[in-house]
Specification:
Layout: E1 3-9, H1 14-25, E2 31-35, E3 48-51, H2 57-66, E4 67-74, H3 80-85, H4 87-112, E5 117-123, H5 132-137, E6 140-141, H6 152-169, E7 183-189, E8 191-193, H7 206-215, E9 220-222, E10 229-234, H8 235-247, E11 257-259, E12 263-266, H9 267-277, E13 283-285, H10 289-297, E14 301-302, H11 305-311, H12 319-335
Parallel strand pairs: 1-2, 1-4, 2-3, 4-5, 5-7, 6-14, 7-11, 8-10, 9-13
Antiparallel strand pairs: 10-12
Bound molecules: serine.
Length: about 325
């Protein structure tokens, strides 16, 4: 008999590590984690870890003979800045890798006659505001507003949301029988901030980079203007949203894709929060025109009403609590 497991791809990334730790803390010991990289040593025993590529069909052909994936958290992706430097690779990983996994999950759903829950982190990058006036006017964007991404990563995420919705509702729609489809659910994350890891290759990274540099006593040149504003969220809330969405009753979900957020800050407000904790931090602003353009196209805030209504979403960490109770103490300890 196949072993029932939770599959996490991109497990060695920021969200992956936090999610695995959270699942381990709840006593969930059937996690199969997959990544090109090893997990850090302090995560030994938290999951069965497999070194592998989401593009490796043979690997998945082998894994499905051994495992029954009850829930899949498909986190593997190249982030937005990195994707601009390697758009073809980004498309391969972010789209082809996702398609492969969705096909596998769809087949598994049919075979077992029960939908595999496929949880997908999407992003503010799916939005593309045309100019700063519109960004200021339409401050909190709703899921269906301004879906005109300007980055490869944003295009990939938006398309994969659509693919997921297709696999969840219309896959094999011309066959005579109605197959059991996968159960696709996505959240659109704002910029995430972890106390334990720094992101690599993202465009919202100036926030976490500022904070981690300050905690290490290193100077930091922020690559966007002081007035640049995007929404952010502390990593524990990101993990909570994934777990809550995965656990929600299917019948309660009126959408497949939900915005989630916590607080919006300008880059200078972010710096001021960092200075409260690390008054000697040396933070300057040296905008990079191209990365600035990406951040300017992202919304200033996200309207997360649907998530609140349908599955009780509510962030535990507002800006004050995120810095005072989660980020600052844990980052201090980390670099002590
Ligand atoms: N944080 C991501 C990035 O900057 C956006 O989702 O690429």
């Amino acid at each position: 008999m196949r072993k029932k497991v939770i599959l996490i791809t991109g497990a060695a990334g920021e969200i992956g590590q936090a999610l695995i730790k959270s699942l381990a803390a709840t006593g969930s010991n059937q996690v199969l984690s997959l990544d090109l990289h090893d997990l850090p040593d302090d995560m030994d025993g938290y999951s069965t870890h497999i070194l592998g590529d989401v593009l490796d069909k043979n690997l998945f052909a082998r894994l499905v003979t051994e495992y029954d994936f009850d829930v899949i958290y498909h986190l593997a992706a190249l982030l937005s800045t990195r994707s601009e430097f390697a758009p073809e690779l980004a498309h391969q990983v972010n789209v082809n890798g996702t398609l492969l996994l969705m096909q596998m999950a769809a087949e598994q759903s049919q075979r077992r006659g029960e939908p595999v829950r496929f949880i997908f982190p999407s992003s503010i990058a799916v939005y593309g505001l045309p100019d700063l006036e519109t960004k200021a006017r339409d401050f909190y964007v709703r899921e269906w507003d301004w879906n005109y991404p300007t980055t490869m990563y944003g295009c990939n995420k938006l398309y994969c949301e659509m693919l997921g919705t297709y696999f969840g509702s219309h896959y094999q729609q011309l066959s005579r029988t109605t197959p059991t489809m996968l159960d696709f659910r996505a959240v659109r994350f704002p910029g995430l901030i972890s106390a334990y890891t720094t992101p690599s290759g993202g465009t919202s990274d100036y926030g976490p980079e500022m904070l981690h540099a300050a905690a290490q006593g290193k100077p930091y040149a922020c690559f966007v203007r002081e007035d640049s504003v995007i929404p952010f969220m502390a990593m524990p809330d990101a993990v909570t949203s994934l777990l809550q969405l995965a656990a929600a009753e299917r019948a309660a979900l009126r959408r497949t894709v939900y915005n989630v957020t916590s607080f919006s800050l300008t880059a200078v407000q972010f710096r001021d929060e960092v200075l409260k904790a690390f008054p000697n931090a040396q933070i300057t602003f040296e905008p990079d025109v191209q990365r600035q353009g990406i951040v300017d196209s992202w919304p200033a805030g996200l309207a997360d009403k649907a998530a609140r209504r349908d599955w009780g979403w509510e962030p535990a960490y507002d800006v004050a609590r995120a810095f005072a109770e989660y980020l600052v103490p844990n980052i201090r300890q980390r670099y002590q």
